[in-house]
Specification:
The chain has helices spanning 2-14, 105-123, 348-355, 363-370, 374-379, 387-398; strands spanning 21-29, 40-44, 47-50, 56-61, 66-70, 77-80, 87-90, 127-138, 141-153, 159-170, 214-223, 226-235, 242-250, 256-264, 267-272, 275-280, 282-290, 297-309, 312-324. With 405 residues, it is α+β, with helices and mostly antiparallel strands.
Length: 405
């Protein structure tokens, strides 16, 4: 009996604990105490997430899992899941180097552009599933809540989006607006092959003739022990639709790590019944990239918009997160337009089916047509909700309002 008991004890000790538990924490700047929104939390390709707008996250993990927490411009930290503190303090490593920068900003931007062009040619058709959460407030009252999964191209910017599944609540009122196509605010581009632009084109910072449109400044800082360039693009003219932005670039590979800023001269069309008014809109954004697949691939996009109309204030925030091939089955071929062959031209309906969401598309209507799987959304939060978002969801679910507007 003694031998058997000893054998059982040894066996139990060598079996790894695979029990998964929900770990959570809040990520803050160690110097200021401010939350770090949309930081990367990574265990492996099947276990990862981002922090929400107030720096909080939850993730299922085994006790022995190593949780890596990173934010561009801050020192990365790694913890065993069972030793993860409730508050994770990241230290900024964005100290400007006192070394002489040998190359000019123009040379650096040229190298970044060449790297983008090479990656674009190879990876422009790469796709992934994108989780999307959108909240709209009218005069500080929540009037729209939307969650969905989209299939999208992911090299440098989100493109050719197509709805996979989703749910929403939209309050109908003469004093509210239903932002049906605000997902387009997440399709911000840092890179373009175009040589010239019109007033209707959003002018990105990386383009062949960027000096015609931007004044550029640059600094060199550390990023987790490696050098990183921070390139500032300031618009030359106030009348173009463009971006006032910052690009964070790896100094060794010239890969883009982060793109953030605000658009200039942006507008929205406020529609109420048959009346349409054009309103200036404030639009801020932050795009972070992952290099796991050998190119600057979208990891997350967050945006905020704010505009005024008839003494009312309308605000929308959105966050998108690349989940790879998880959660929803996707057929990559569905975004390929089929050849017409001898069957004549495609019908308008078929063209719409294969072209994805249009710039002025009605995402709420698309979700309603597909139908809502309530069980799926109860089991998949993906990105932890903020307290305000969680409260809104609880009310909407209790009153069975999802799918209505």
């Amino acid at each position: 009996m003694a031998v058997v008991v000893e054998s059982q004890s040894i066996t139990a000790a060598t079996v790894p604990d695979t029990t998964e538990v929900c770990v959570s924490a809040r990520i803050i700047d160690a110097a200021t105490g401010e939350a770090l929104p949309f930081a990367s939390i990574y265990i492996n390709k099947e276990k990862n997430t981002i922090s929400n707008a107030v720096g909080e996250f939850t993730l299922m993990a085994s006790p022995a899992d190593e949780v890596r927490i990173s934010y561009v411009g801050f020192h990365t930290k790694t913890f065993h899941a069972d030793r993860l503190p409730k508050v994770v303090k990241l230290t900024s490593d964005g100290q400007q180097l006192n070394e002489v920068v040998v190359y000019s900003a123009d040379h650096i931007i040229s190298q970044v552009y060449k790297r983008c062009l090479k990656s674009w040619k190879k990876h422009r058709k790469d796709m992934a599933n994108i989780f999307y959460r959108q909240i709209t407030y009218t005069d500080s009252q929540c009037t729209t809540y939307l969650e969905s999964f989209l299939a999208s191209r992911t090299a440098f910017s989100l493109r050719s989006m197509q709805l996979l599944t989703g749910r929403f609540v939209a309050v109908a009122s003469s004093l509210t607006t239903n932002p049906t196509n605000f997902y387009t605010f997440a399709q911000i581009e840092p890179f373009s092959t175009k040589k010239s632009f019109t007033f209707n084109d959003l002018i990105p910072p990386l383009s062949p003739n960027y000096l015609n449109y931007f004044v550029v400044e640059m600094e060199t800082i550390h990023n987790n022990g490696r050098r990183m360039y921070v390139i500032y693009f300031y618009p030359r003219n106030d009348y173009y639709w463009t971006v006032n932005s910052r690009l964070y670039v790896d100094a060794e590979t010239f890969d883009i790590l982060k793109f953030e800023g605000e658009t200039w001269n942006n507008k929205v069309v406020h529609s109420n019944k048959k009346k349409h008014d054009i309103c200036p809109v404030e639009h801020t954004f932050m795009v972070t990239y992952q290099l796991d697949n050998g190119f600057s691939e979208i990891q997350s996009v967050s945006y905020g918009t704010r505009y005024h109309h008839n003494d009312h204030t309308y605000e929308t925030t959105g966050v998108m997160f690349n989940v790879g091939d998880r959660y929803v089955q996707r057929q990559d071929t569905q975004l390929q337009l089929p050849a017409t062959g001898t069957h004549g031209t495609l019908s308008d309906a078929m063209k719409r089916a294969f072209s994805g969401l249009s710039f002025d598309g009605n995402l709420l209507q698309e979700i309603q047509q597909k139908g809502i799987d309530k069980t799926f959304w109860k089991e998949n939060e993906i990105v932890k909700r903020t307290p305000i978002e969680q409260k809104a969801v609880e009310i909407f679910e209790h009153d069975n309002l999802f799918g209505l507007f």
